[in-house]
Specification:
By secondary structure, the protein is mainly alpha-helical. The chain contains 7 helices and 4 strands. Strands 1-4 form a two-stranded antiparallel ribbon. Bound molecules: protoporphyrin IX containing FE (2 copies).
Length: about 230
């Protein structure tokens, strides 16, 4: 480790973090109140109020995230979630880490986890479907031939599963990696253990890394205002 430098680098913008935590809190409340209504439909009026209140937080946070996805820069942009050959290789290494129960090393990445990046895009699609099927629901809940209630329940299964697995995964990444991922989603900075060019070496389970290599995965390179 003495041959390596440790750097703390901003990778998540303020706007992305605000969108993340508002969406995360709203989704947790929507899951709890939604399944509460499903299992106990009669005295559900406060559950329904809370469901709509959480939806009122989810929608602007989601719209902000979608705006950043298409019009943002750096790691906000959709290109940071898209797979390429390099990321597919790292994604396979993340899977190997899961299947070896943490015995195989976790690879390095810059911002979005290479395995999870495309899954986040899929989640955004399901959140859109969930918002539309919730907002357009009437009695009877049909939009043409489509039963919006059924669509909403299927969406709820997908989003609930995503949430449980996502929380487990980020805990595992924080535990097995050196990036301080969870605190990075709070303060914006990930930790990188940088290779010194001449004495580059690997120590234990923590892999040293060339920051330029990792940054090269950023396709939309316009910088954040808080980047050094
Ligand atoms: C205690 C709860 C949670 C924690 C600690 C947490 C933590 C994190 C962390 C560390 C990342 C970065 C992962 C990476 O390297 O790719 C992340 C990303 C993300 N998380 Fe969570 N998360 C939580 C709950 C949720 C929930 C409930 C949702 C929504 C269903 C969610 C949606 C996302 C999305 C979409 C991203 C990608 C970042 C972006 O592009 O906006 N998270 N989360
Ligand atoms: C993460 C997002 C969401 C999840 C997991 C979720 C989950 C659920 C679940 C499980 C139900 C119960 C279905 C049943 O009774 O069989 C439900 C009902 C409902 N949800 Fe959501 N929901 C979400 C987002 C939304 C949003 C954004 C809206 C509105 C814009 C919405 C509006 C509704 C409505 C109108 C109902 C029917 C209430 C009733 O029949 O009394 N939901 N939701």
């Amino acid at each position: 480790m003495s041959n390596n430098d440790i750097q703390r680098i901003p990778v998540w913008s303020h706007a992305l973090r605000i969108a993340h935590w508002v969406m995360a809190a709203a989704v947790v409340v929507l899951i709890a109140t939604g399944w509460g209504m499903e299992s106990n439909p009669l005295p559900a009026s406060t559950l329904q109020d809370d469901h709509f209140l959480a939806a009122a937080f989810l929608i602007p946070a989601f719209l902000l995230r979608i705006y950043l996805l298409f019009f943002g820069a750096g790691t906000d942009h959709i290109s940071d979630c898209e797979p390429d050959m390099n990321r597919l290789r790292s994604a396979a290494a993340v899977l190997k880490y899961y299947f070896s129960l943490g015995r195989s090393p976790l690879p390095n990445w810059y911002a979005h986890n290479p395995l999870w990046g495309p899954l986040y895009l899929l989640l955004f699609l399901f959140l859109l479907i969930q918002i539309l099927s919730g907002a357009l629901q009437q009695n009877p809940p049909y939009l043409g031939m489509i039963n919006l209630h059924d669509v909403h329940v299927i969406g709820a299964y997908v989003i609930t599963t995503f949430t449980v697995v996502h929380i487990l995964a980020v805990f595992l990444h924080d535990l097995g990696g050196s990036g301080s991922d969870i605190s990075a989603m709070i303060n914006g900075h990930r930790i990188f253990i940088l290779k010194k060019p001449v004495t580059a070496q690997q120590s234990g389970d923590v892999q040293s890394v060339s920051l330029d290599e990792l940054r090269s995965s950023l396709k939309n390179k316009k910088k954040h205002s808080n980047e050094p």
